[in-house]
Design goal:
About 50% of the residues lie in helices and about 15% in strands. It has about 280 residues and is α/β, with parallel strands linked by helices. It has a seven-stranded mixed sheet with strand order 1-7-6-5-2-3-4. About 25% of the residues are buried.
Amino acid sequence: MSTDYQQSRVALGIRLRELRLSCPDRRLTGSQLAALLGWPNSKISKLEHGRQTATPEDLRAWAEATGYPETYDELASRLRGFESHIRSWRRQLANGHRSVQETWNAEVDRSQTIRVWEESVIAGMLQTPDYARHMFTRYAELHGLMPDTEAAVRSRMRRQKWLYQSGRKLRVIMWEAALHALICPSSVLATQLDRLAGVIGMDTVELGIVPFSAPLKIPAANGFWIFDERLAITEDWHAEVWVDDNIGVATYLMVWDTLRDAAVYGADAYRIITRAGRMLSTQ
């Protein structure tokens, strides 16, 4: 969990404690408030010390029980302000992959230039339907969720219309490992590599491949996306992290520029992609 996130959660807890201790009718102990709300005492302690993330329902109940119902909007705003930055996969995927894809589509539509680094998979906006289908299935299995695979695939494919709009630019860097990762049948990956090779030369796409043999100034770590210079999104196993502060976005831009120095483009990138395809045919 990020330091900024935890600090914000602790600050919210301090505010909740202030409300409890300044009730208009009487000063409430933690035990008394827990009894009013029908919660275990431990929940009051965890929320006030920033060890548990409140839900909007928790905040509304707290505001009403302490005699300050008018503070709910303030508390909910605080929650939105820090929870929007770390988005749990379990929460996001509770309604399926499609809703996550639609959120991404909205950010893509707002953007003129998108920079991407992927170290182990093909970038989503360059995926074929079959490749995307296997990606969604794998993640649904990982998180033990009911898949809505076909709806998610359709949503991701709609995003690719952005590539055919003038004035847009998708600048993708991928590690060569992404061309070999068999997260799908080899026949699906072969078709995906053909699609990848086909975007080289498009005026809206700049595709760079970092070869295995390239010297790296920094490790080839987590993939991330940068939307213009206002938002960076990176993924971990438990959550998706949205970074929108100037310093944070600048850090991701610096990382992207550093990785770009190791990439090859044009005919050189094409040769690496087609070589990966030939290796598949011999397996």
